[in-house]
Amino acid sequence: MKINPIRGTHDLFGEEIIKFNKILFEVKSIANKFGFSELITPIFESSELFKKPLGEQSDVVLKEMYTFKDRNEEEITLRPEYTTPMIRAAISNGLLNNLPAKFFGTGQMFRRERPQKGRYRQFNQINFENFGSEDFFADIEIISLANNLLKKIIPDNNITLHINSLGTRENLKSYKIILSKYFKDNKSLLSKESLDKINTNPLRILDSKNIEEKEIIDKSPKLIELLSKSDLSFYEEVKKCLTELGIKICEDQTLVRGLDYYCHTVFEFKSDLIGSQDTLIGGGRYNGLIKTLGGKDIAGVGWAGGIERIMLLMKNIPKENKDIHLAILDSNLKMHAIKLYDYLIKNNYSVYWNYKYNLKKSLSSANEMKANFIIIVGENEKINNNYTIKNLSNGKQTIVDINNIFDHLK
Ligand code: HAM
Known about the structure:
Elements: H1 14-34, E1 37-38, E2 44-46, H2 48-54, H3 59-64, E3 67-69, E4 75-78, H4 83-92, E5 101-110, E6 122-131, H5 136-153, E7 159-165, H6 169-185, H7 192-195, H8 214-218, H9 229-244, E8 249-251, E9 263-271, E10 279-285, H10 289-292, E11 300-306, H11 307-312, E12 324-328, H12 334-346, E13 351-353, H13 359-368, E14 373-377, H14 379-384, E15 387-391, E16 397-400, H15 405-408
Parallel strand pairs: 1-5, 7-8, 12-13, 12-14
Antiparallel strand pairs: 2-4, 3-4, 5-6, 6-11, 7-9, 9-10, 10-11, 14-15, 15-16
Helix pairs in contact: 1-5, 5-9
The chain binds histidyl-adenosine monophosphate.
């Protein structure tokens, strides 16, 4: 019986898992520097958590959620994103008493999209959220965190930060009406796909990748024109501060994001080296969302990054040297070797037992694995109760007893 992986899923191993773990390591390290605590939530939640907050007309809710009825008829959804589960968890566990409350998490998300390079049905996200601050510095902090993380993981890549402001949710509501009217007046210039969105979700027409619609979209009314003085000045502060930090920004007035909960600052880090799925990190403000989910009326800002997309830009990471390779010359010497093996492991060395029981094969295996040292365990060594250590960087070979072994491994 041969069972294939489910379409849109993928296994991680070899070079990929080394990259994956490097990302997780850097995420934890930067979270610690910026004072974000880890919050791990379940992979499935009540469907209600996602439907309204993400937008009943959003692609995620309309077409992409993995939703099923549990045996007790409860409707459950595999999480398509991490922001709403994090808020749910913060509310459920009373984590919103000291504000701002800053959390991060990494894990699998599920969206039934059409699979392609950088787009999967099960994928991994990094997620950072700051709950409870209206200060524009919260936007700066979270964007600067993302920028530092990307610089650390993929230093030589030309990644651009796209930014826009949506103003308040009321602005967005009025804008949708204006946009809907504008596209209705220009129906003949739109694709069938965009026409379907005129009434339900005109904002999504703005992300159309159809070249033939580019001109009509470029000429569409701009949301920025509806922003109040104070919203504009908030946005100006954000841009000024990012520039002060040396973070290059690309203002993009058509950037509206695909989920409904955003307001004010929205941003995306993009790369032009990974094909059409070019957004590595996306996020923004979601003031009002925490209240919608039954929490306090506090603000929020955050982002999520796709681990698989970031991995596409990473170079292979050179293999770490395995410290010590055991060359056991005959299988009847296992008992003598095992004491040494155990002793080295207990003293925090990394030791490789190659299962070959042959000098020549052991030497080539040690070279292939770039071991620092090889320790030979042969008949003579057994009789004399010692071991032969070979330093593979200078070829020097020494016979030592177990008590002197550490002096020679330095
Ligand atoms: P999102 O833009 O839907 O935002 O997803 C964030 C990132 O997840 C994307 O930029 C992309 O790198 C990755 N991603 C999304 N879908 C897929 C997929 N099918 N395959 C591979 N990678 C994917 C959110 O999820 C929001 N919760 C972000 C946020 C956090 N906003 C505020 N806080």
